[in-house]
Design a protein that fits this description.
This is Carbohydrate-binding domain-containing protein. By secondary structure, the chain is an all-beta fold. It contains 1 helix and 62 strands. A hairpin with a 4-residue loop joins strand 53 and strand 54.
Length: about 575
């Protein structure tokens, strides 16, 4: 996929569907038919599947990559301290085999303190078929793809291959590469139904200095530095990948070319434990789907210094999440980028030692289920838009905070939001606006924070909002420019957590019955049930036989409460003292 600067692209699906590439050609005894299916004319032909493939980089992936004639395979047998080549295209020197010609090479056996090198000027593909190999090298990379137009590593079905290096590399002629257990100076593809296990003791486990594509396979990595690194890009189509890295888990770090340095993940199962960032890109991270378990920097209870980074998912530009299941436990921000974050849907569980979702530009949440169980600030950006989704936040500071710019704005246009915060529940260093959705706020009990905190205006133009606070002298309410009525009740004495708060109309009908999770001294409430000129009564305490969801009761009968005060709505913002 040839990436241009895709700043502002909001949907990964558009990006992916527009990049289809199908090659009509003949390769040995295999053809790709016009109906997009692969036809075999010989039983020895090996194929991956008959699907249309996606263009990754210029000629990085083509349909013929996964089609070859097994009769052309050259066998390389590793015999511990010797190597046998059954064919041409590779030479042996002791425990080193060097592949000099493009072609298909099936490798099997064990190699003690040896190396497989690819070094060819051919423009055709080198295909390395791992048929259960075990290669160790105490002083260099077990696999060194020094020069090749494109290399494809095939993990043969029902096999497991092992690569292990030493903690020190010996270089010739002042070189400083290879710097990974599995190293490629050029485009690299890994795929197959087999497994690959890498124990990296010197630097990275898998590195491509160009683009790295992982199409499938089971990969297990332990690394003293980064786990999987594609300098220009890392594109993962599928697979089951486990990384335990002291550095970053997945990484793309080309920060020179604006069209590179990105990570795209279509699907797969990923378990990442990292000392640094779980997933880190110099430009963009785009995720279509997948199941992610990420623990970075020791998790949310750990400390990370200001000059270190231990974020769950990090991008210097944009992050787009189309779908997926995410369980992120990070010492630093769980999801962080310098520009725009877009969440379309997905099931996202976050615990963070700092912010849960942070962007320096914009955050847009269009759907999904987000559960933030531990964080300092939950969602923070100069511009935050929540259009839909189910969001739960427990924060030690502000739960949703629009801050960081000269113009800050919080928009709530839908969704279901439940907040328990020690700082401000909803905060904007500018304006706020709510047009739809349900917002339930169990606000701070300290006197230096409030349920609602905004510097400009808060237009309550729709939706349902209820929130508790304690610093009644600091509490705010919807602006008079709102189209929907709101009320702020400042109680004369504090109420304990669980003590019901109820508003009913003049006919005794329930407007809201709420069971706060925290001690409270003030309540802010807005819904379409409030109307101008109508009189309402406030009750405290009592009980309800209704069904409680996140403290809100529906149905049932309310009894036993004490009438606190009655009030009449006379303006868009009414305060009851």
């Amino acid at each position: 996929m040839k990436i241009v600067n895709f700043k502002g692209i909001l949907r990964l699906s558009i990006f992916l569907l527009s990049m289809g590439l199908l090659v009509n050609c003949s390769v040995d005894k295999v053809t790709v038919d016009e109906d997009d299916s692969i036809s075999e004319s010989d039983d020895n032909t090996s194929t991956d599947d008959d699907s249309t493939v996606t263009e990754i980089g210029e000629n990085h992936e083509e349909a013929v990559d996964y089609i070859w004639d097994t009769a052309t395979e050259v066998g390389i047998v590793l015999n511990g301290t010797s190597i046998t080549v059954n064919g041409t295209g590779a030479t042996v020197n002791g425990t080193t085999v060097t592949i000099t010609d493009a072609g298909n090479y099936t490798i099997s056996g064990t190699l003690n303190d040896g190396q497989i090198i690819v070094d060819t000027d051919d423009e055709e593909t080198v295909r390395l078929i791992f048929n259960g190999i075990n290669v160790t090298n105490s002083s260099n990379a077990p696999i060194n793809i020094a020069d090749a137009e494109k290399t494809i590593i095939v993990l043969k079905e029902n096999t497991t291959s092992y690569l292990t290096d030493g903690s020190t590399y010996v270089f010739a002629n002042g070189q400083d590469e290879p710097n990974a257990t599995l190293y490629s100076a050029d485009d690299l593809t890994i795929y197959g139904e087999g497994s690959l296990v890498i124990d990296s003791n010197y630097n990275d486990a898998i590195t491509s200095k160009d683009g790295l594509l992982i199409k499938s396979g089971t990969i297990n990595i332990t690394s003293v530095d980064d786990g999987i690194r594609g300098k220009d890009y890392l594109y993962i189509m599928d697979g089951t990948i486990t990384v335990n890295a002291e550095g970053d888990g997945f990484k793309s770090d080309n920060d020179v070319d604006a069209n590179n340095g990105y990570i795209i993940i279509e699907s797969g199962i990923f378990n990442i434990t990292s000392g640094g960032d779980g997933i880190s890109a110099a430009s963009n991270v785009q995720i279509a789907n997948g199941d992610f378990t990420i623990k970075s920097g020791g998790g949310s209870t750990s400390y990370v210094s200001s000059d270190s980074s231990a974020k769950g998912i990090k991008a210097d530009l944009d992050i787009i999440i189309e779908d997926g299941v995410f369980n992120i436990n990070s010492a630093d921000d769980a999801i962080h980028c310098n520009e725009d974050i877009t969440v379309e849907t997905g099931t996202i569980a976050l615990a963070s030692g700092d912010d849960a979702i942070h962007s320096d530009a914009t955050i847009k949440i269009n759907g999904g289920s987000i559960n933030i169980t531990k964080t300092v600030e939950g969602i923070e950006s100069p511009s935050i838009t929540i259009n839909d989704g189910e969001i739960y936040i427990v924060s030690s500071d502000d739960a949703v905070n629009a801050a960081g710019n000269t113009t800050n704005y919080l928009y709530i246009n839908g969704g279901y939001i439940v907040i328990t915060s020690s700082g401000d529940s909803l905060d904007s260093n500018g304006n706020m606006e709510m047009t739809a959705g349900t917002v339930i706020l169990n606000g701070p009990t300290a006197t230096n924070n409030s349920t609602l905190d905004y510097d400009g205006t808060f237009k309550l133009n729709g939706g349902f909002l209820i929130g508790t606070g304690y610093a009644s002298n600091m509490e705010e309410i919807g602006s008079t420019s709102s189209t929907q009525y709101s009320v702020l009740v400042k109680l004369t004495s504090a109420q304990t957590a669980g003590n019901l708060f109820r508003i009913q109309n003049s006919a005794g009908e329930d407007v809201v019955t709420f069971k706060p999770q925290k001690n409270y001294k003030s309540i802010v409430f807005s819904s379409s049930s409030l109307s101008n000129g109508s009189t309402y009564s406030i009750y405290l305490g009592g009980s309800s036989t209704g069904t409680a969801t996140d403290g809100l009761y529906s149905g049932g009968t309310y009894t036993g409460g004490t009438l606190y005060k009655s009030f009449t709505i006379s303006s868009k913002a009414t305060t009851v003292n």
